[in-house]
């Protein structure tokens, strides 16, 4: 299974450690299509700049069976990727940490009710429980 993982990189560097933990846990369920190393340098370190990043990430989306998006930190890029994943009819899991004090976008929050939970899910989580959230999601995913 190919899993595309995304999170706010340019605007969410304070969550890099969380992203790294999620990406590592996702490796238990398949090949993770994401930045080779989600690092402090972010996508600015990619040869070819923004065009290369766009092309690479759209290719990963096309190859993916499921998209996991960490959506706590608002991001135009992640929103765009979710929209593209929806257009490609990919299964999508959005992860949100209420303890961050942020409010989840209504467009993400309400999409789950419009698209059906088998295609689009939003899961609240705390950092220490993300492994259980992923186990539950991928356990259900493999049943279907």
From TrEMBL:
Gene3D superfamilies hit by this protein: 3.40.50.450
Pfam families hit by this protein: Nuc_deoxyrib_tr
Annotated binding of substrate, by residue: 4-10, 19, 81, 105-107
Biological process terms in GO annotation: deoxyribonucleoside monophosphate catabolic process; nucleoside metabolic process; purine nucleotide catabolic process
Any single Gene Ontology cellular-component annotation: cytoplasm
Function: Catalyzes the cleavage of the N-glycosidic bond of deoxyribonucleoside 5'-monophosphates to yield deoxyribose 5-phosphate and a purine or pyrimidine base. Deoxyribonucleoside 5'-monophosphates containing purine bases are preferred to those containing pyrimidine bases.
Protein family according to the UniProt entry: Belongs to the 2'-deoxynucleoside 5'-phosphate N-hydrolase 1 family.
Subunit note: Monomer and homodimer.
Protein name stated in the entry: 2'-deoxynucleoside 5'-phosphate N-hydrolase 1
Source organism phylogeny: Eukaryota, Metazoa, Chordata, Craniata, Vertebrata
């Amino acid at each position: 299974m190919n899993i595309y993982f995304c999170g706010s990189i340019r605007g969410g560097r304070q969550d890099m450690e969380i992203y790294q933990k999620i990406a590592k846990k996702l490796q238990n369920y398949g090949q993770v299509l994401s930045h080779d190393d989600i690092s402090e340098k972010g996508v600015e370190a990619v040869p070819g700049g923004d065009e290369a990043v766009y092309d690479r990430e759209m290719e990963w989306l096309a190859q993916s069976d499921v998209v996991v998006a960490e959506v706590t930190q608002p991001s135009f890029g992640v929103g765009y990727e979710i929209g593209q994943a929806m257009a490609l009819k990919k299964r999508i899991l959005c992860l949100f940490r209420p303890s961050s004090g942020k409010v989840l976008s209504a467009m993400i929050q309400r999409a789950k009710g419009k698209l059906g939970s088998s295609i689009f899910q939003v899961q609240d989580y705390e950092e220490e429980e993300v492994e259980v959230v992923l186990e539950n999601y991928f356990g259900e995913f493999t049943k279907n």
